[in-house]
Amino acid sequence: MGSPQDDRFRRLVHEHSPAIGNYLRRRLYPLTLADLDDLVEETLLVVWRRIDSVPDEAELPWMIGVARNVLRNSRRSQYRRTNFESTLRAAPDEPSAEDLVIADVSVRDALKSLNDDDREVLMLNAWDGLDTHALGIALSITTNAAAVRLSRAQARFRERFAAAQVT
After folding, report:
1. Rounded distance, CA 89 to CA 93, Å?
2. Model pTM?
């Protein structure tokens, strides 16, 4: 038998690693599927190191927040690497995760027209099922700020979606 922290970590991994993997997989671009295991592993490593900081009432949103930061760090590294490689040779264009997942052109176009923050809060809510309280934890903002960001992002999405339907 392990320590209480070991047991809690095992439970967190068992219960939440599929959701963390799905969260990262949907947002992987411009990284590749080959990077997915490393991102999940790095996320779980942070969770292990900060096991006492994981809130009991919001484990998954907290872990998604960690995964979000791990993904951002990996994207920054990828960006620096790509910039360096672009001095050597041109980087190929790849479709975004949204292009691969979303079949409806008007939905895809409306999502693409939003800024990254609006798109992120909408996807956390719709795809990952986070309510405003959980969004606040994942984004490191207050619940009220999360509700305002979600409401505004939804309004902008509806506006852009309606415009895409007209054309």
Report:
1. 13
2. 0.58
Token representation of residue 115: 């800024």
Longest dimension (CA), the chain: 63
68 Cα distance to chain centroid: 5
- CATH class, 95-167 region: mainly alpha
The DSSP string of 87-106 is TTSPPPP---HHHHH---HH
Grouping H, G, I as helix, E, B as strand and the rest as coil, residue 92 is coil
Report in angstroms the alpha-carbon separations of 88 from 18, 42, 91, 137, 154.
38, 29, 9, 41, 41
Domain borders along the chain are: 1-94, 95-167
Residue 55's pLDDT band (boundaries 50, 70, 90)? very high
Is 1-94 a domain of CATH 1.10.1740.10?
Answer: yes
Contact 91, 82 (CB under 8 A): yes
In terms of pLDDT, which residue wins out, 90 or 10? 10
